[in-house]
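hey so i finally got around to running the thing on that chain from the lab meeting. sorry it took forever, my laptop kept dying and i had to restart like 3 times. anyway pasting the input first so we r on the same page abt which one it is
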Amino acid sequence: MKRKQYLRTAAAVLSAAMLLGGCGGSKTKEAGDTVRSAETETAEIEVTGIEAAETETAETEAAEIETAETEAAETETAEAEQESVGIRAASPYIFSEGLAWVELEGGSELAVVDADGKIRFTLEHGDGTVDATPFYDGASAVYIDKPNSGYAIYSAAGELLASSDDGDDTTSFQLLGSGDGKYLIEKTTTSFSENSTVLYCIDKNGNKLTEEAQVSDGVNAMEYRGDGLFANTYSSTCFLDGRVIKLNDDSVPETERTDLGFRMWGEGEVLSIKYCDVIRTSGALEDTDYYKTIDIAQGQNYPIGCWFNQNCELVTALAAFPEGVTVDGCEYIGEFDGGYAYVGLRGADGQSYYTIVDQSGNPVYEPVKIEGGPFAYAFHDGAIAFTDHGYVVLDKDGTLYDAAEDLSAFTGSILPEDKVGGIMYGSSNVELTINEGVKYMAKDGIYRKLDSTPFDQAVLTDDTVHVSFAPEEQGN
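ok and heres what got predicted. didnt touch it at all, straight out
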């Protein structure tokens, strides 16, 4: 465009010269020379512009190539700095808050891995089986699976938040239970002048949440039942608000014992203790192999499958089933969880069936046949797991799944039954868990995605933190 404008200008100059000087002579020649000079200058400018543009393009392309090569080299270096290792599931055998404990290939170290397969931190430990609690509020406690072996609480980044290492050889500690960010601690002091055991609760940072409560003898692990209540149902012992309460202690008001018994076995303030066969004579709450009893009215009988509230009033009873269908037995009836309770039935065909009932005692779905007549291994929010004859799960809508197959459509969660409180010394046999899109089966030993894709590899990076848990230094 500039060239055309220049030529038009030159032509105008030439025409003016011709009009002024006539059609011949030197002036016409001079005008022609001027036009040729302008054309030459324009051509030189165009060549120079093209060369500059080509040079700039070449420099840009070279810079882009150099940047790509640099990024590729950095990526290759980063990948070289990562180390993939084999992993197996470890206590408590469940993903929580996107994290899980694993055992590294070789078995010498534990580690915490996230859902992307990145190892957050490794944990070197001494002799003994190390168990852990599920992550809650970004923290998890680890402990050796034997009494008085100390504990340590770590953040998701591997930072030591609290531990039982107080530097006193006369004092030992044991983690008895955990839940809702509360950790129940047993502290035993044995010396020339003192022999005592106390219980108290701490938070993840080791701050005391309750006063110390004196106990006359040792207390076993306790299950967390919510609202600050820890309970050992086998010894009918509770810890609540800095107090140790025994349900068979006549010095404790009967109303309090009844209320605590209700909370130990029931759910919230709606439904409580299940009863089978008979509600027996007077007396406090007692535990038998398969059912719980409490004083309702002497000699009063109830059918199998009734639930009562803390005032010992009948709240829910099973709806009537077709003729020939019976409840399989007391051990086949569950407590309420998430508004549902499971019930095992014996069909008219003699086969085993399961369903769940709502708070009115009505079945939520048509009973489903479960091969082999198994006991329910775990129950949570309407989902039932069975492990006696293969691993199968029954979703809250009545859909039956083989846990070893694709569980992508499964909507529930299966929590480790003997790890509800996070602590279970000497009994850490978790068979099946399903949570946060990951499943674990004991017969498999590894985590898997719900579609059964193996989760058996994780990555160690330069960001991975390495820590050590030395129980011999944890106050022992």
